[in-house]
Amino acid sequence: MAGIFRFTFGPWNIHEGADPFGPSVRKSLSFTNKLPLYKKLGFDGVQFHDDDAVPEMNDLTPQQISARAKELKKILDDHGLIAEFVAPRLWEDERTIDGGYTSNDPSCRKYANDRSKRAIDIAQALGTDLLVLWLAREGTYIRESKDSKVATERIVDSINQMLEYDPAIRVCVEPKPNEPMDHTYIPTTGHAVALALLCSDPKRVGVNIESAHAILAGLDPSDEMGFAMSFNKLWTVHLNDQNGLKFDQDKTFGSVDIRRAFNQVRILDKHDYGKNGEWVGLDVKAMRSQKDDSATRHLSNSREMFLRLLEISRDIDEKFIADCTDRRDYEELEMYILRSLLPERQI
Ligand code: XLS
Ligand code: MG
Q1: Which of 45, 159, 170, 182 has the most other CB atoms within 10 Å of its CB?
Q2: Catalytic residue among 15, 50, 51, 52
Q3: What is the mean pLDDT of residues 180-187?
Q4: Domains plus CATH for the chain?
Q5: Residue 158 reports pLDDT greater than 90
Q6: Residue 49 bears catalytic tag
Q7: Is the pLDDT assigned to residue 282 strictly greater than 80?
Q8: Residues 32 and 71 sit within 8 Å (Cβ to Cβ)
């Protein structure tokens, strides 16, 4: 058994370095200038927020939005690139200050639902059937202001509207427990899978697991992946790394905990990830302290880490692991894995 791995990232992963405490520190690259970098860095697919694909889309008619997205499709074809998914960016507009799908204001919920349908139009024009929902502001800072049962039902209602709008679209929820909200309503893979089962067509609702988001929930990303795969619901991943429970860092894959990264690669490879067309997304950002000249290296480095860990994983003696496991010699197994992850040295 072995997976098939092709890589994607989003234009937001080449970033100017602004954070909540300070401005940009690197020069801005236009989307047109980012496109040729994809292949150079070893990537074949592009992930899109709806307005990465069609900027200023709130000022355009649905027809204009589709027409612009079709022009973009030609540009992607010229670069030999495929659109992996489209995600409605629902966290910047003033109408989503208190959430979109879960807002207490019906006109704000309507905006979120309409915007999601425009994102589906863009997905259709770009030739992908995958819509990712990062439910950024669907949560609370103040518990008494929303009702978590009603909020869950509202998210289900919104997803049902999307499923009905396009009978071919697949909706992939990207869980995250916090940030920007204090608490979000679909914080983990388990919540996302359960949510899918409440929707009108559960087989068209799946999960995008981001390593850092699972870590922020105090969970192991590889276990989250295994759980989603047991429901056939792992339709894309956002691999990265995270140093403890703090803001979402989007660090280079494997840069904090190489064994944790190894286990993500191993579970994906063991269970044929990619054989149904799933991509490996690398949702990583360069450090703010990185100078311009190497500010795309986090992408190729993350891909290289994935491929190196894949090689290690495929070289591993599974019989030896099974033997240690049978004997419950876990110290031996521990050291075998640690040795496998380190270069040979004479001691
Ligand atoms: C959040 C993400 C976000 C989604 C796509 O952590 O980086 O951009 O992955 O909407
Ligand atoms: Mg992400």
Answers
A1: 159
A2: 52
A3: 97
A4: 7-315 (3.20.20.150)
A5: yes
A6: yes
A7: yes
A8: no
| Nearest ligand to the CA atom of 52 | 1
Q: H/E element holding 320?
A: helix 318-327
In 175-252, which ranges are E strands?
183-184, 205-210, 234-239
The sign of the torsion formed by the CA atoms of 74, 57, 32, 137 equals: negative
Of 253, 171, 273, nearest in space to 210 by CA: 253
d(CA 99, CA 96) in angstroms, rounded, equals 5
Q: Where are the alpha helices (DSSP H) in 89-220?
A: 106-126, 148-165, 189-198, 211-216
**Which of 46, 47, 133, 174 is the best mutation target for the ligand 1 pocket, counting ligand atoms within 8 Å of the beta carbon and taking the most?**
174
**φ/ψ of residue 303, rounded to 5:** -65, -45
Residue with tokens 């899918």: 196
DSSP state letter for 344:
-
C-alpha to C-alpha distances, 105 to 33, 95, 97, nearest whole angstrom: 40, 9, 11
- Work out the average pLDDT over 165-187: 97
Give the pair of three-digit tokens for residue 342.
Answer: 């380190």
**pLDDT (tens digit, 9 = 90+) per residue, 16-43?**
999 999 999 999 999 999 999 999 999 9
Token pair for 292 = 């311009």
- Determine the Cα–Cα distance for residues 46 and 38; give it in Å rounded to an integer: 8
Over residues 160-177, the mean pLDDT reads 98
Q: What's this model's pTM, rounded to 2 decimal places?
A: 0.97
